[in-house]
Specification:
The chain has 15 helices and 18 strands. The protein is of the alpha+beta class. The chain folds into two domains: 2-195 and 366-453, Zn peptidases (Aminopeptidase), CATH 3.40.630; 197-252 and 292-364, Alpha-Beta Plaits (2-Layer Sandwich), CATH 3.30.70.360. Strand 4 (106-108) and strand 5 (111-113) form a beta hairpin.
Length: 456
């Protein structure tokens, strides 16, 4: 039956592109309060795709944006998979940087350009279309598939935990299938088996009641800008290791086997450097670039503000300065412990002549899925069938807070099958999703459903 399903998918390529374009035209920007109607329209559209296929579906209201649930119904004897994705998108940003309007899907050079094309409308739609194809051709799916498509991912999914906990019984599954990551490179598919956690902080240092003239007052009080620079500098040493006491205590070194597999990846450091446009690669001493990026904890300044930052010169001592700092942590590091240790280190580095405030913006743990599970093997076989090439197994430096949450509440491991290319401009101008990758993603999902049905 899979041959007939794949033939159906191939025959409907143009219709699928038209429907994806319809999906992408909806301005479902979750951060924009003026887009409430678009958010609602998009949620209804997603629910309509499920209901038209005959799947049981429901819109679950939250304190902010609705979440769409669907279930293909019990069938077969294989494991149950829950497909997770999101229909909300990032803001457009500077429209002058887009070669075509962000919400007018445009096809050029074999890709569809629009906000949300890769993150995540195009990718989650591959699974929706695969399930639809199975239902149309076979009358049912070879395995039970559930869906959760939310509308708040781009604002940190503030209400997702409540939805998962309240609907844990109906979301019960053996695996979570997620396509919100990328391939290894333009030509090589990948399965991401690990993500880092994150602790995101804001440091605010204040001194005098207002900005002061640096000539009249300089040298007679502590400058908050100088203090903040000193605090930040104290957080890392000359080997680019984080100096926060206890930061590495719970970090487990990866096995020799995993290190050798990372070394064997066809990672092009020169191309990676060129893609960034930076003068050189640098990081924690004793580790390769790919290890630093995927399996080692990091600390980075994300933004700084204070004093006079306008054009020209204004010689002031700033009254208040701010820096935002994020730490990407690895499995076995406790995010709460790291958060407390960071606060203690910053306060210890702050002299008595200023005041310091520390705000926690985000906190989540790391996640790694077992590489020897039947679900991983099913995903790998499906992607190889869909792309005609075996996927590589990689770890990602980014964070997906939902993964440890899914594991905690549902007891299910996540299978991250990315179909877009790494340089798809997600969150930036001219976001795109390759048409061939879109079609291969639909086929891979269809094969995944078949492969999963044969798992024990």
């Amino acid at each position: 039956m899979i041959k007939e399903v794949i033939a159906h998918i191939e025959a409907n390529k143009e219709k699928y592109i038209e429907r994806l374009s319809e999906f992408l035209r909806m301005e479902s920007i979750s951060t924009d309060p003026t887009k409430q109607d678009d958010i609602r329209k998009c949620a209804n559209w997603v629910q309509g795709v499920f209901s038209d296929s005959g799947f049981k579906t429901q819109i679950v209201e939250t304190k902010k944006h609705p979440c769409v649930l669907a279930d293909t119904g019990e069938t077969g004897s294989g494991p149950v998979a829950l497909v997770y994705g999101h229909y909300d998108v990032q803001p457009v940003g500077d429209t002058s940087l887009w070669d075509s309007p962000a919400f007018e899907p445009t096809i050029r050079d074999g890709s569809i350009f629009a906000r949300g094309s890769a993150d995540d409308k195009g990718q989650v739609f591959t699974h929706m279309l695969a399930a639809e194809a199975w239902k149309k051709i076979a009358g049912k799916l070879p395995v039970q598939i559930k869906f959760m498509v939310e509308g708040e991912e781009e604002i940190g999914s503030p209400n997702l935990e409540e939805v998962i906990r309240e609907h844990a019984d109906r979301l019960a599954c053996d695996y979570i299938a997620i396509s919100d990551t990328a391939k290894f490179d333009d030509d090589t598919p990948a399965i991401t088996y690990g993500t880092k956690g994150m602790v995101y902080k804001e440091i605010i240092v204040t001194g005098p009641k207002q900005n002061l003239h640096s000539g009249s007052y300089g040298g007679s009080l502590l400058n908050p800008g100088n203090v903040l620079a000193s605090i930040i500098a104290s957080l890392k040493d000359g080997d680019n290791r984080v100096t926060i006491p206890g930061y590495y205590d719970d970090v487990q070194e990866i096995s020799d086997d995993e290190r050798n597999k990372l070394k064997a990846l066809p990672f092009d450091e020169k191309a990676y450097l060129e893609s960034m446009g930076a003068p050189a690669l640098e990081g924690e001493k004793g580790y390769s670039t790919i290890e630093r990026r995927g399996v080692r904890p990091t600390l980075d300044v994300n933004g700084m503000l204070g004093g006079f930052v306008g054009e020209g010169a204004s010689t002031v001592i700033p009254a208040k300065v701010m820096a935002k700092v994020s730490m990407r942590i690895v499995p076995n590091q406790d995010p709460e412990k790291i958060s407390q240790s960071f606060d203690a280190a910053v306060r210890a580095a702050t002299p008595a002549g200023v005041r310091v405030e520390i705000i926690t913006h985000a906190i989540c743990g790391a996640y790694v899925t077992p590489l020897d599970s039947p679900g991983i093997r099913a995903a790998a076989s499906a992607i190889e069938a869909g792309f005609g090439k075996k996927p590589l197994f990689i770890r990602e430096g980014g964070s997906l807070p939902i993964l440890p949450l899914f594991k905690e509440v549902l007891g299910a491991d996540s299978l991250m099958m990315g179909f877009s290319v790494p340089g798809c401009n997600l969150h930036g101008p001219n976001e795109f999703f390759g048409i061939d990758d879109f079609m291969r993603g639909i086929k891979s999902s269809a094969y995944f459903m078949q492969e999963l049905a044969s798992c024990k």
